[in-house]
Amino acid sequence: MSKTQLFDLDGKIAFVSGASRGIGEAIARLLAQQGAHVIVSSRKLEGCQAVAEAIVQDGGKATAIACHIGEMEQIQNAFAQIRERFGRLDILVNNAATNPQFCNVLDTDLGAFQKTVDVNIRGYYFMSIEGGKLMRENGGGSIVNVASINGVSPGEFQGIYSVTKAAVISMTKVFAKECAAFGIRCNALLPGLTDTKFASALTQNDSILKMALQRIPLKRVADPEEMAGAVLYLASDASSYTTGVALNVDGGFLS
Known about the structure:
This protein has helices spanning about 20-35, 45-55, 70-85, 110-135, 160-180, 200-205, 205-215, 225-235, and strands at about 15, 35-40, 60-65, 90-95, 140-145, 185-190, 245-250. With about 260 residues, the protein is of the alpha/beta class. It is globular and about 50 Å long.
């Protein structure tokens, strides 16, 4: 395979959760630019449709499917639609996540705990199972889990979120080992501090941001597009011998 073909996704079907904005939107747009038909998904259909329409206007291929990954029935419904419309899935990017509480670990609310676990662990786990079954039927594929540097170095006042992201890293290795025989690779992206609405509690607080930048060797916050390139590598044939990896894209934070 030539170097120019390594990142070619022509003919591939890709599902990106949490794709209505931020890192997920950047990933969806880049995968489409490389030729994939991207299924743009998030909780609200309107946001998915806006991104899908923008991709089509730019000459790409996209479909919008609403799915709240914290709801098991919605996961099952989404994959039933994928099976019916496309009959296959080549790339799954688990990007949707939640972090509803910012507090000392001792003040963790049970409701916030359960919501975070349901989305960030159970959601990723069963999304990977449903996506993996489709991939197994068609000879393989690539699963990319968007975890976080918090899964390695817990973020202050982000206790249960950090715990769930550590679980995602472990989950990635489990699926990598058990699904390799089916031609399925599974890797994780560990974003550092990125300029998104999701991270606004950190990026828009001057004192927190100043403290965070002191620990980032590149001394800046990432753009969502800077995460998309790493996902393209993990989703494409460029990483054909890469599985079970947790790739830091963090400006050197974990160095």
